[in-house]
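ok so i was messing around last nite and threw this chain in just to see what happens. nothing serious, just curious
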Amino acid sequence: MTRALAVASLPVFRRRRKDQASRERTSLSLRADVLAAAKEIVQAGEAENLSAFVESALEDKVRRTKRAALYAAYEEAAGDKDFLRDMQDVSTSFSNAETDGL
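result:
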């Protein structure tokens, strides 16, 4: 038996992710067209599998949602006169530290 045949006859084991223990199984209902598009992307090799693709998409959405909330908080703070006054006071207090070379 050649080495190539010996290797080919070995059982295939999927590598487990290091964070596999933190995974939780769930069930989702998706529109058929969205699911079909996701499967096409996976089949094209853009994602390891459907679960990895969905997880990545959810992570992106969570990140965008959190960023939007943060920017909304920045915008609110920019209109808060007390906050702006406090920020000016802090900047003034640290102006000496900026000039002493530290």
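not much to say yet. The mean pLDDT is 84.
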